[in-house]
Every structure is written in structure tokens, then in C-alpha cells.
Amino acid sequence: MQLKLTFLGAAQSVTGSRYLLDTGSTRILVDCGLFQEREFRSRNWEPFAIPPRSIDAILLTHAHLDHCGLLPKLVREGFQGSIYCTGATSEITKIMLLDAGKLQQEDAEFKMKRHQREGRRVPYPEIPLYTAEDAEAVFPLFSRPVKYEDPVRISDGLEASFHDAGHVLGSSMIKITARQDGEERTILFSGDVGRWNIPILRNPSLFSQADYVIVESTYGDRLHGDPEDVAGSLAEIINSTCNAGGNVVIPSFALERAQEVLYHLNQLLISNRIPHLLVFLNSPMAINITEVFEAHPELYDREMTRLIERNKSPFDFPSLKMVNTVDDSKAINRILGTAIIIAGSGMCTGGRIKHHLVANISRPESTILFVGYQASGTLGRQIVDGAREVRILGQVHPVQARIAQLTGLSAHADRDELMRWLSALKKAPKQLFVTHGELEVANRFSNYVADKMRWKVSVPAYREQVLLD
To answer: Which one of 231, 312, 396, 432 is most buried, by most CB atoms within 10 A?
Structure first.
């Protein structure tokens, strides 16, 4: 048996997750994500490595755009197969893609108007990668929702099973089993590995066997802060900013991170460790995703389930204000006194967060609080790396606000947690492929695993093909 695996994304980069598995008779794509690092974004526009129409199925690990965000382009260019994922992933992916299509249209229009206002001539018009209409064309291709642990037949001799990744709501690790001429091979895709004992979600699934393993390495060279320290750090930041008379501005991913921040704020408010400030969730997409969270209590861990039973939901506390309209969003920046503002995007690459940054980043009394990974080349990365001034919405602003980070909120496993996940395998896989990390990080984690486990480990390059015999 010979299977061919091609790394079409998240190879020596953090985003753009896309793996093509070819059995000779069936082609499946595991994830179909956007590249979000500035240096790799042009890859989103490249033709696919193979005709999209020749792909039989897509298996999604979860709904973050770097795992699903290129689906509209793939469908527009000919993909007609089925998309398999959990019910929560399906629901959230539709929200994410529709929002991404709208944002890309709006960004293209904004840039054209800015170029006209500045009198700039460009050799080509701003064209969105895809539109909201392209996103809607993806929706009919979602298959019936997959349940965790249940095997799904993809084609003759090829099946997949989805397992709770503990990363975001509905996220999965995917184990593919290929059978041919009496032989069997198992390929395990980690997706994004979650963490143990974090709020809302259950712990990541463990596996005892796989012939080949593809593992992420986003935080493969570092250790997170203790999750127990998150509440104390968050309380200190909010209290000190309140005393200074500024705002706490939190760039946040709409999926999982926004809900986890609400969880911790709710806990601090219940225990009166912070003042009862107004908390604005200023993201229609995050609001819609929060509704999906509320619709899937079967995915909660025990602690979250107990909160719901006690009517202490983190999605419905008294000072929480859901902001849907643009006018209401603008009005937040006119409020006197301290407020907590949660808005997207998490890496400050677009969305309403940019307007709140304009209003606060040059105020020494305000705090910009980062609660997630900041990819190389993004505005968020520039800020956390200590830039003295940044360009936002076409204007340069000095960075004078307090810049803070909470690493304990990460939904990605750190080095030791990744090792905990890998160590559950009872014997060495034939090969471990390390992906989904900046090159230096992936190399360090690869060397660490090879040294500790004595496994065959590699860091595949973009578009590299390997045979799985």
C-alpha cells in the first residue's frame, strides 16, 4: 500500500492548514485554511495544487479560519464533494466564512476609497479573495454532522473517526484508516491540540496507536503560564487600568477565546475581585458563536455544566453588553470612565478592534490586553514585540498604552502538553511530521521529540510530498 501525503499549508508556518491525502483512488483534504501571516498571504491566491473538482471529500478539524477559511475559493473553483465535521464545527464554520467574506469585501472597498482619497494610482483594483456569496455556496456541501468516536466511511477502504481535541467547541483530532489488499495504515492528524483543565471544554483525546502522526507545534518551544494564575493576572490588569481611568481593550478571536475571556470575567465578578464594569462583546460574529456554545451544552466540561445549572452562565451576566450594530460600536469610544472592550480580530488584522485601538493605543491610562497567539507579520505581533508606533487604518499612531499578555489563556497545548499527548502512543509511529509552527519553533520541537522519544521526526516544507508505505 502506498499513500501520498502533500503538505499544502501549515508547513514551516503557523497558518494555512491543508493536507492532501491521496490513496490512488480517493483524494481527501484535511482542513482548508487561510494563510494569515503577511509573508505567506499571497499563497491564498495561488491555484490549488490539483484541480479542486478532483478532491472527493474534505475533513475539517475545527472552525478557525486558518483551518477552514479557504473553502469558498475551493468551492468556487470546482470542489463538489462532501465536507465532514462535527455539528458545532459546521455551525461555527458557516458563521466564520460568512463574516470573512463580508470583511474581505469591506476591506477591498475601504482600500479603494483610501487610495482615491490619497490620490494614489494602483495598477490593479482591490479584489476580495472571496465574497459572502461565495461563502454561502459552501454551506450545502456540509454532510450530516459527525459524532465523536463514530467511524465515517469516506470511500471503499477509507474511513475516518473524529475525536475531541479540547481546543475550541467542536474541535477534532482526525484518525484516518486506509485498508487495501489486506494491509492497513492509520494516519493521525492532531489538528490543534487543546489543553488539560481549562474552562468550558473537555480534555484532549489520547491515542494508543498510529502509523503516521501529524502534530501541530504552535507553542512547541515554550511553556504556558499556570492556568490558575490567569484570574489573578486578569484582575490586576483590570483593577490597575480602572484606577488609571483607562479602558481595557482585548483583541480576541471570536471562537473560543472570547467565550473563555467571558468565563474568567464572570468568575471575577461573582467573587467581587474586580469592579462591576461594563463589558462589551463588540463582535457580531462572537455573539453568534456564543449562541452556538449555548446550543451545545453536551460539549461542556463538568465545571461549566455546574455553572449553567446554578444560573451563573458566563454568557449572560448583568454587566455584559452584546454589541451588534456599527453605531453602537462607535458609541463605546465615547463612554467616559473604564470599560472592558472585547472585539475582533484576535491578531488585529481587521474588524472592529482597529477602531478601538485607534481610540486607546496612544492613551497611557488604557491597556491593550492580548489573550492569544500573534502570528508573524500581523499588527498584533508588531504591538506585542514592542513597536513604538503602528499604522492602523492608514494612519500612524504612537504606542503609549500599557501592553499586556495573558499566555495562560492559550487554547494550544504547550511543549509539555504536546509531549503528554504524544507519549500516550504505546509504540513509535513510523514517522512524526511536525507542522503548524514557525520554522524555528517547529525545528526546536522536532529536535526535542527526537531526543526524548527516539522517533523519526521531520518538519515538512510547503508543498512537500511524502509516501506513506
So the answer is: 432
